[in-house]
Every structure is written in structure tokens, then in C-alpha cells.
Write a structure and sequence with these properties.
By secondary structure, this protein is mainly alpha-helical. The chain is built from 4 helices and 2 strands; from the N terminus they run αααββα.
Length: 147
């Protein structure tokens, strides 16, 4: 198993475990809430963790089929996984801090502090580039094999 494949498998396991743990946090918030609901970002973090776990297994399949150099596949997978993890982390942090129910609404809150809009914009555009770009690289490698 090459480095890119190992990264996808380990990431799938970490994300799935994160989904299970955030499921416990979600249950505890539901049980403690008068409205029987968890904070929206705990719910989002829980679901995203589980979805990203399975997305990593899809990436593993693409890595296994792709005929690109291992270093190229590893860079593509690393970009995807890094932003998957960063997204989950921000969801869970907002859910635990209960500081916002919309992280993309001004003012951008992080606990008691405000995050500059430029930081949010840079993060979002680099996330878009890394996730779409990383997948396109892997998909290109698959298309080379298929056709």
C-alpha cells in the first residue's frame, strides 16, 4: 500500500471515529437541552465526519486505480484530507463554544473573538481549490487508466 492509500485509510478511520465521538457529544447536548436538540454545528460536525470517512474510501479507490506518480497522488489526497479535517474541526469548535449558528455570517465569531473576513474568505477559496483540485488530479489519474 503506497503513502496516498495509507493516508486515505487512516483518515477514513480518524474521521469515522470523530463521527462516533461527536455522536456522543450530540446525544449529550440533546439530553441536556430543553428543546431536545444539539447545537447545529455539533450536528454538522457529526454528519460531516461520517461523510468524509466514506469520501476517503472513495478516494482510496481512485488512488488504487490512478496511474499518476505516488507523490502526485499523495499531494492530492493530502490537500483533500487537510481541508476535510479543518472543516470538521471548525464545526466541532463552533458547536462546543456555541458561538454561532452560521460561521459564514458577519461578524465572524470564534468564541469571544471576531475573525477577520479576509481570513474566512482565504480559507474558503483555498478549501475550494484544494478539494476540487485534489479530486480532479485523482480523477485525471483514473481517466488515464480507464481510457
Amino acid at each position: 500500500m503506497d503513502a496516498a492509500a495509507k493516508l486515505t485509510v487512516v483518515s477514513a478511520g480518524v474521521f469515522f471515529l470523530t463521527g462516533l465521538i461527536t455522536g456522543v457529544i450530540k446525544y449529550r447536548q440533546i439530553a441536556a437541552s430543553d428543546s431536545a436538540t444539539a447545537h447545529p454545528y455539533i450536528d454538522i460536525g457529526h454528519r460531516a465526519s461520517l461523510l468524509y470517512a466514506f469520501a476517503c474510501i472513495l478516494l482510496l479507490t481512485f488512488v488504487e486505480i490512478s496511474r499518476l506518480p505516488v507523490a502526485v497522488e499523495l499531494a492530492a489526497v493530502a490537500a483533500l484530507v487537510l481541508y476535510f479535517a479543518a472543516s470538521i474541526l471548525t464545526y466541532v469548535v463552533h458547536g462546543l463554544l456555541q458561538d454561532t449558528d452560521n460561521q459564514l455570517k458577519c461578524p465572524f465569531r470564534l468564541g469571544n473573538r471576531t475573525v477577520p473576513g479576509s481570513a474566512i474568505s482565504i480559507f474558503m477559496w483555498t478549501l475550494i481549490a484544494a478539494e476540487i483540485g485534489g479530486f480532479l488530479v485523482l480523477f485525471y489519474g483514473v481517466l488515464l487508466e480507464v481510457f
